[in-house]
Structure formats: structure tokens, C-alpha cells
Amino acid sequence: MEQIDLATPTISADIASRLRALIHAGDLGPGDRLPPERELARQMGVGRVSVREALRTLQANGYVEVRRGATGGAFVTQLDRPYRDWLTNMRSSEREINDILDLRVGLETQAARLAAGRRTDEHLTAMAEAIEAMSSSDSRVTFRNTDARFHGALAQAACNQRLEAAVASARGEMFSPLDSLAFTEVVESSRAAHSAIYEAVRDRDAEEAARAMVAHLEQTREELQQLIFGDVEGSDTP
Length: 238
Hints:
By secondary structure, the protein is mainly α. About 70% of the residues lie in helices and about 5% in strands. The longest helix is centred in the middle third of the chain and has 25 residues, at about 95-120. The protein is globular and about 50 Å long. Residues about 1-5 and about 230-238 have low confidence and may be disordered.
């Protein structure tokens, strides 16, 4: 009889995966300093040994660099190597990026629909502030951060913790490789899309919020398809 593999990820592997997802989604960007080991252990409810091993894994894979001294710690790298690895993985299976976007469409469309009925003024403020910050983005790092802030605020406005966690997980499957797209065009198209979603949520128009989210993510799909498959020779450098 075939043996079933019931192996589960180690604690350190799970921590590394969670931190990697934050980096992929843009919640943590190049140059950001991770909390100290003690604080990470407290936040995640694990031991410092597990955190230390997770950081070693991230360092070995090019996600963080460890600096010594009074101002040292674990810092997110420029992500050149992880980004190249992500592109290679996406190019190995043409279905992969579409599967991720299909999942995001399903999850975030429902989040937008629910947010229109459940949002509070505080949720609207958080979304509006993210849009305003995106409008004045002066670097790809700040753009990634404001993009993550908007999608996170919208997911929170759905008032469903399981859905919010699922949205964060799906976004973590991507690398948010917007650094390689034409910066000015991406900022403008994303700001306009976020504004359309925000206005529908503000007006409590659930179906319009859902339509606006679908349009946004389908535009993202088109941009990523071009990035990943449109110019294989010229798109490896973030």
C-alpha cells in the first residue's frame, strides 16, 4: 500500500515562509529592518531558536542580510536573486501565474464586495491614505508599500479574518515584481484602479466594487504576463 506523506513544515520553515510572503507582497521592502529576534519570537509565539533558523534560511536565499554592531540587525536586501528565482519559477509553468491571479480575483473580489457593506469610516480613511501616499510615491519601494497598504486595508474592511488571511497568503504567492514595470505608468494605473474600488466601497455599491477589483487584477495579469513571458531576454533585472 502506498505510504501517505504526512510531513509538516518545521516551525522555522513556517516562520521563513511567513516573512517571505510579507516581502513578496510588498509589506517589507528593500532596506527595511526586521524586528529583533526577541520581538519576532514574541509576535509569532515561537522560540528565538526557530526565528534564528528562519532568518538563516532567508539569508541563504538572498532575502535578508545580517549586519553586526549597534545599528545592525536583519535587513531586506535589494531582492535581485529572489526576484530572478521567482521569474524562473513562473516561467517554468505558464499556468502558475494565472493560477495565482485566478485565486486573487476570487478572494479579493469577494473582499471588495463585503467591504462595501461592512466598511467603517476608519477603513475608508486607511484606504484613502494609501491612495494618497501612492500618488506621491517617489520610488519603487514606496510604491510597493502603498500598494500593500491599500489591499490590506480593503481586506480588513471585509471584516472577515479568515478572508483577510487568505488574501494576504495569495498576495504572498506573488513577488509584487512591479519594480520591473514602467514605474510612472504603473503608479498611475494602480492609483486610478484603487480610486475606483475605494469610491465603490465608499458608496456601498458592492457590485461596482467587485467589478472594479476584477478590472484591476485583470490589468495586473496582463502586465505580469508581459513581464514574465513577453521579453524573456530583457526582463531579468528588477
